[in-house]
Amino acid sequence: MPSPSLLTNGGVYTYADRDAVNALISGQGLLTQGNVFWVRPTNGSDVNDGKSPASAFQTLGAALAACVANQNDVVLLCAEGNAAGVTTASLSANLNWSKDLVHLIGVNGAPFIGQRSRISNSATVPAFANLFTVSANGCRIQNIEFFQGAGSTNPSAASTCVTVSGQRNHFVNCQISGIGDTTLDDAGSNSLTLSGSENTFEGCYIGLDTIIRATSVTEVVISAGARNTFLNCHFETYTSGSTFKMVSINAACDRFIKFKNCEFLAVQNISSAVAPTGLIGITTMNGQVLMTGCTLYGFAQYTTADNAYVQMLGLDGTATGHLIGITQGVDAA
To answer: Three-state DSSP class for 200?
Structure first.
């Protein structure tokens, strides 16, 4: 059993410890009437009750099974070292986060990239079609790194790192990186697929710059849903395809998709990298894409051809070659 250094009474969970836990999760923007469960991928065990650091679960599946929907239960995924091998919750099959109002918080230093509360496919199994699915509603997921690629032996099919089909979920300071191995560079593979409505991604790193996208055509697929928002996010890719799109938007999308103060980077000046002709792939939708205060690097344009469904807002009102700074009512070209 690991040393119960986070407990105040020799390993016995006390009211003082409960108060300390509530202080921790309130510091992450949460207060809860529900239960708190701990996960330690290296030093936990699923025979434990998960109710303290000293009796933590080992797997996220055990923690999710212990949670009750709709009471703001919280799962704390603890970093246990800097090396990926000792701090990763490894999955051998898709994990569906399926209980409403159950939150997942990483306990770590909260860097922007490479949070050590890490979720990846197990190195002992091939990568699979979906690593992590959020079908639930109203969940906060914070300080978590999602990575699809470790130990891949090529599933010979499209794979997605994170799929969000639920509504009103809030991702904060998460890394979402698919296609983490060259064998996963199949047509249709991506880092994020979004089909639910009214989800918010805030301060997240989405994409990957270590594995070239030679076959995959999109980093983020928004296939449906209404009123989804990305705030202060950094999107990054490494591609050799001129027609590659950072974001693909389906005609089934509704009302608005908002990008505010986001950066979009197709890395340049490295082997085989090209500048794709357009950032967003879109034909029509039942609404508009609204982009405020955004910047792009390595892409020729926001859209390859003139498209009235993508609106650039804000800044100084001057249209440039990259369409940064159109004040109102002008469609992106």
So the answer is: strand
Contact between 33 and 68 (Cβ < 8 Å): no
How far, in whole angstroms, is CA 205 from its chain's centroid? 7
Helix (H) or strand (E) holding 16: helix 15-27
The per-residue pLDDT for 317 is 38
Q: Which residues contact 57 (CB under 8 A, 6 or more apart)?
A: 37, 38, 39, 40, 44, 45, 46, 48, 50, 63, 66
**Hey, what domains does the chain have and what are their CATH numbers?**
70-332 (2.160.20)
Q: What is the pLDDT of residue 329?
A: 38
Low-confidence spans in the chain with pLDDT less than 50: 1-10, 316-331, 333
Q: How many residues does the chain have?
A: 333
Residue among 137, 73, 127 at smallest CA distance from 105: 73
Q: If we measure between CA atoms, which residue out of 234, 170, 248, 182 comes closest to residue 206? A: 234
Q: Which residues contact 178 (CB under 8 A, 6 or more apart)?
A: 131, 148, 149, 159, 160, 161, 162, 184, 189, 190, 191, 192, 208, 219
